[in-house]
Amino acid sequence: MDAETLSLEGKSTIIRAEELHAKMEELLMGGVDVSVDLSAVEQIDTSALQLLLGFQRAFKEQDRKLQWVKPSETVLSAVKLTGLGPVLGMS
After folding, report:
1. Which domains does the chain have, with CATH numbers?
2. What is the pTM of this model?
3. Do residues 44 and 75 make contact, with C-beta atoms less than 8 angstroms apart?
4. Are 38 and 8 in contact (CB under 8 A)?
């Protein structure tokens, strides 16, 4: 099966949430597995974390693979702070 990569970088905050959501919707419609590269994320807020969580749930519902690639320390800290580590598989 084909795979796509979604790369997040810089600030992943509510200011970019609409853009991120549109990219995620496009990938969901594409029917392929996706890797999300989080290595260059410098700032992330709860709106972006909610989008990642929703993205993951949608993939599970479609029985497709979604992989987090190299989450930055910023992402890991935010995930830990919110308690989403186990849910997202980023502990």
Report:
1. 4-84 (3.30.750.24)
2. 0.91
3. yes
4. yes
Give the DSSP per-residue string, the chain.
--EEEEEEEEEESGGGHHHHHHHHHHHHHHTSEEEEEEEEEEEE-HHHHHHHHHHHHHHHHTT--EEEES--HHHHHHHHHHT-HHHHT--
Tens of pLDDT, residue by residue over 27-81, are 999 989 999 999 999 999 999 999 999 999 999 999 999 999 999 999 999 999 9
> Residues 51, 53, 55, CA angle at the centre, nearest 5°?
65
Contact assessment for residue 1 and residue 33, using Cβ atoms and an 8 Å cutoff: yes
Q: Are 2 and 31 in contact (CB under 8 A)?
A: no
Reading the block at residue 6, the tokens are 């979604």
Please check whether residue 67 is in contact with residue 88, taking contact to mean a CB–CB distance below 8 angstroms: no
